[in-house]
Write a structure and sequence with these properties.
Elements lengths: L10 E5 L11 H9 L3 E4 L14 H13 L3 E6 L6 H5 L5 H5 L3 E4 L4 H9 L4 E3 L12 H11 L5 E5 L7 E11 H6 L13 E7 L3 H13 L8 E8 L12 H9 L6 E2 L13 E3 L2 E7 L2 E6 L5
Parallel strand pairs: 1-2, 1-3, 3-4, 4-5, 7-8, 8-9, 9-10
Antiparallel strand pairs: 5-11, 6-13, 7-12, 12-13
Helix pairs in contact: 8-9
Length: 302
């Protein structure tokens, strides 16, 4: 189901699903949302603390649940990522959201929630969050999110990469943080990869661990079933004392390059300032050729 466009004057909520965040931390993001003509409603989890987390699990759960159930709230932003979303995921009730879907926005740790919504047939947005919004160097990421939420036409073009595998694929877009995708396997939030365009990103990981997760996905038969693969930003990578000897493109091509589906590298999605928003669960077409890559949603005008 295509979600309704936001309108000026709509109320949007900000909650803390994972790592704690202060009001000061998200002030730039709030200003930007207000500049878009939106009314910002802050959850009780903003400013709350429980060690690393943005308040106890029950506070974060009830905070998000109230936003999900409130018909006046038209979109919900996770204030930031970190860790903690999966701690509350199984205690949430999505029955009202399934009857009256609304935008849910976030990335990184929020990948688990976006995947869970996909299993329920609800679209969501893998995009920037209030902690990161409204900065001088995030204009493109912010604008890509605004365009999706307000239903402006959306089409992405990316420069050619020598590691790309050419081809054309059409399918629903799924994905997010590689380690989170691995962590939700076998849970209620696990997604079907068959015929999908999968996008991947991560931050601060070891090369061997990226390899290990892809081996796991391959052994499960998931990589073979994809329609296409989008490789986003794997930033701030680490290596072991004995170097692994392969970079991310080499690792991915080793495990995915022979399946015949298109693969795009260096797509601007992930833990970077140019983190372009993607609609999870919406059908799109990926075209990879010698001149570059395009990704456009089938109903590009929404």
């Amino acid at each position: 189901m295509t979600l309704p466009a936001l309108q000026k004057g709509d109320a949007v909520g900000i909650v803390c699903l994972a790592r704690k965040v202060s009001l000061e931390d998200i002030k730039d993001g709030i200003r930007l949302l207000e500049a878009w003509g939106l009314r910002v409603v802050l959850g009780q989890s903003i400013g709350a603390e429980d060690g690393y987390l943005g308040g106890p699990d029950e506070l974060r759960r009830s905070d998000f649940q109230q936003m999900l159930d409130n018909p006046d709230i038209k979109a919900i932003f996770s204030a930031r990522g970190g860790y903690g979303t999966t701690r509350i995921l199984d205690q949430l009730d999505f029955s009202i959201l399934q009857k009256n879907p609304k935008w849910v926005i976030g990335f990184s740790d929020v990948t688990a929630l976006l995947c869970h919504l996909h299993t329920l047939g609800i679209e969501s947005v893998h995009g920037t969050m209030p902690l990161l919004m409204g900065k001088p160097d995030t204009t493109e990421a912010d604008e890509s999110l605004r365009q999706i939420l307000f239903h402006a036409p959306q089409r992405y073009s990316v420069a050619a990469n020598p590691s790309n595998v050419p081809g054309t694929a059409t399918g629903q877009v799924i994905g997010g943080n590689l380690i989170l995708l691995n962590n939700i396997i076998g849970t209620a939030s696990d997604v079907d990869y068959s015929g999908k365009i999968l996008f991947l990103e991560d931050v601060g990981e070891y090369y061997y661990n990226v390899d290990r997760v892809l081996v796991h996905l391959r052994r499960l038969g998931r990589l073979q079933k994809l329609a296409g693969l989008i490789v986003g930003q794997f930033s701030d990578m680490n290596d072991t004392a004995v170097p692994f000897g392969k970079d991310v493109p080499q690792i991915i091509l080793e495990h995915c390059g022979s399946y015949g589906h298109p693969i795009c590298f260096d797509f601007p999605v992930g833990h970077v300032t140019r983190n372009l928003a993607l609609v999870v669960g919406r059908e799109a077409t990926l075209q990879v050729n010698e001149t570059g890559t395009t990704l456009h949603y089938e109903n590009a005008s929404f």
